[in-house]
Amino acid sequence: MSEAVLEVAGLTVGLTHDADGRRIVRDINVTVPRGQIVCVVGESGSGKSVTAFSVMALLPQGLKPVAGSIKLLGEELIAATDDRMRELRGSRIGMIFQEPMTALNPVMTVREQLAELIEWHSEKRHPKAEVDKRVLAALEDMLLPNAAQMMHAYPHQLSGGQRQRVMIAMAMLLEPILLIADEPTTALDVTTQKQILVLIKDLVKRKNIGVLFITHDFGVVADIADQVVVMQKGVVVESGSADTVLKNPAQPYTRLLIDSVPKGIRKSAEIREPSPTLLEVKALKMTYGHRGFLGRGRVTQAVKEAAFTLGRGEILGVVGESGSGKSTLARCVSRLMKPTSGEISLLGTDIARVSNETLRPHRRYVQVVFQDPYRSLNPRLSVGQSLIEGVVNFGATPEAARAKVATLLELVGMDTQILDRFPHEFSGGQRQRICIARALASEPQILIADEAVSALDVTVQAQVLRLFADLRSRLGLAMLFITHDLRVAGELCDRIMVMKSGEIVESGPTADIFDNPQHPYTKALFSAAPGRERLQ
User: Fold this and answer.
1) How far apart are CA 170 and CA 161, in angstroms?
2) 346: β partners
3) How far is CA 196 from CA 91, 186, 268, 427, in A?
4) If we measure between CA atoms, which residue out of 106, 165, 178 comes closest to residue 138?
5) Closest to 536 in 3D by CA, of 72, 90, 219, 82
6) Quick check: do 4-92+176-260 and 277-528 share a fold?
7) Is residue 466 a contact partner of residue 458, using CB atoms and an 8 Å limit?
8) Tens-place pLDDT, residues 97-149
9) Mind spelling out the 3-state secondary structure of 368-402?
10) Model pTM?
11) What would the DSSP string read from start to end of 311-348?
12) How many whole angstroms separate alpha carbon 430 and alpha carbon 474?
């Protein structure tokens, strides 16, 4: 057995001021050996991140360990002073946070942020050339292209995958023995996610470190884990080797998490009859920027000559990486932006270039469910106020609108008693159901789901996908389903379009795309899906 880098024994975390003795996590036992990746897996609220932050002594105010032990190479951390923990963070324990854009300082260059870490953990001042050399070596170690130029870039100038690699470079800069990764791939494209997972596995092999990897996705677990710890409601319900847990889960909850991972297998294989066309898009283009004097200037073609149709009751998947043009296409179709050229025929009317005044009566027929349900709901408005706003804008009285949204809440599986509550009182899955109810309030013909399940736990994701399928069956809704994950599209969609660099490179019935993908990019998306081998 390898040397234990981290030993968590009987860890219990409670509220600082709580006479009732409530516990957030209870009696947690986790061991991370050197040279291994231990995945802690569970849904939001299971206590995964609380456990990780306890190791770093970064618990939010109001929480503290009340029992147990946390040892780093035999050194007890619970009793460590603040000064000692500051010494250990970065130098002995590195951490990768979930959202690199918020974890990185937006007003400092990549070089400045990595250099700051060196200065904080050095007793003497290093020459600038030496610091630059160490920073460059750390970035190159992450296989970042043009690392010398990237040193001087700001976070907003990097892609999501590049920002995450910078975060890993910062975590590994001082060569820690323990790396904690808190949901580091949750919101990334499957191809970028694959690259990050391969990079972390490579670091473990080259540096012989231990990794505590936090995730809610058993697909990721299947790709990366040596050991697995399953948490539910603050306790460990199952643990063991990855092969044992994946092949022979002992607990129903573990089986639920595994079964919730999208496999790309159609739940319903019925052949749909041809249906009336609701939407027809022809030669659609969206161009950003412009040519200036003497032809100078930068022009980006976000969408190039897109063409497709959408029939009543049909679900069309639009799949591709970030930057492929999926969301721009959705915004053009919903006329949240005006396309540069082309036709968007909605119920027989071309809405591509009409004025906002002419467009207004048509807006009710196309509604959008966005990726982040929290940001798309006004935190200052109650659920009822958010839901009835659109209905009232289209002419209904507040009383009639309230009765209508109560029916819609029941349709999406929510209690009508929540109308006077606020968005922060609900889970991510519940907020997404509220957003779906709001989108349905204007009785649309077409629902656009723009990465509507990508940030959700796999169990909640499965529930929302079933809800979309149910709404299609009950209401005859047509859907444009935007996603970066072909497996998710395969669970729900009748047809799939694959986009790359603004262009539709492949399209066809879902079964054909899955059974016989033609374009190399489509094949790459399939090969990048996590857990393809161990979860088959």
Assistant:
1) 14
2) 279, 349
3) 22, 11, 33, 28
4) 165
5) 219
6) yes
7) no
8) 877 777 899 999 999 999 998 888 877 788 889 999 999 999 998 888 888 99
9) EECCCCCCCCCCCCCHHHHHHHHHHHCCCCHHHHH
10) 0.82
11) ETT-EEEEE--TTSSHHHHHHHHTTSS--SEEEEEETT
12) 20
Ranges of H-type helices in 378-519: 383-393, 398-411, 428-440, 458-475, 486-492, 510-515
Structure tokens given for 507:
């399209």
The DSSP call for residue 142 is T
Alpha-carbon span 234 to 215, nearest angstrom: 15
Q: State pLDDT tens for residues 222-278.
A: 999 999 999 999 999 999 999 999 999 999 999 999 988 887 765 444 555 657 899
Token pair in block for residue 298: 């930068």
CA distances from 44 to 14, 68, 429 (A): 18, 23, 10
Residue type, 28: I
> Residue written as tokens 């709901």?
377
Amino acid at 77: L
pLDDT, tens digit, for every residue of 303-361? 999 999 999 999 999 999 888 899 899 999 999 999 999 999 999 999 998 998 899 88
Work out the angle at residue 179's Cα, subtended by the Cα atoms of residues 30 and 160, and round it to the nearest 5 degrees. Answer: 125
φ and ψ at residue 147, rounded to 5 degrees: -60, -35
User: In degrees rounded to 5, what are phi and psi of residue 432?
Assistant: -65, -35
Return the number of other C-beta atoms located less than 10 Å from residue 474's C-beta: 9
- State the burial class of residue 33 (Cβ atoms within 10 Å of its Cβ: 0-12, 13-18, 19+): middle
How many other CB atoms are found less than 10 A from the CB of residue 504?
A: 21
Kindly write down the DSSP assignment for every residue of 200-244, as one continuous string: HHHHHHHH--EEEEEES-HHHHHHH-SEEEEEETTEEEEEEEHHH
Query: Cα(343)–Cα(350) distance, rounded to whole angstroms?
Result: 6
Closest CA to 401 of 440, 375, 361, 435: 440
The candidate with the shortest Cα–Cα distance to 308, out of 496, 472, 516, 467, is 496
Domain range 277-528, CATH architecture: 3-Layer(aba) Sandwich (3.40)
Residue whose C-alpha is closest to residue 147's, from 138, 155, 159, 139? 139
Are the CB atoms for 366 and 445 separated by under 8 Å? Answer: yes
| Other Cβ atoms closer than 10 A to 312 | 15
* Bridging pattern class, strands 235-241 and 315-319: unpaired
Q: What is the DSSP letter of 361?
A: G
Is residue 466 classed as helix, strand or coil in its secondary structure?
A: helix
CB atoms within 10 A of CB 97: 18
- Reading the block at residue 502, the tokens are 């603004």
Domain topology for 4-92+176-260: Rossmann fold (3.40.50)
Structure tokens at 7: 């030993």
> Could you tell me the residue ranges of all domains in the chain?
4-92+176-260, 103-175, 277-528
91: which 2 tokens? 């130098």
Q: At what angle do helices 110-120 and 128-141 cross, to 10 degrees?
A: 110
Q: Amino acid identity of 345?
A: S
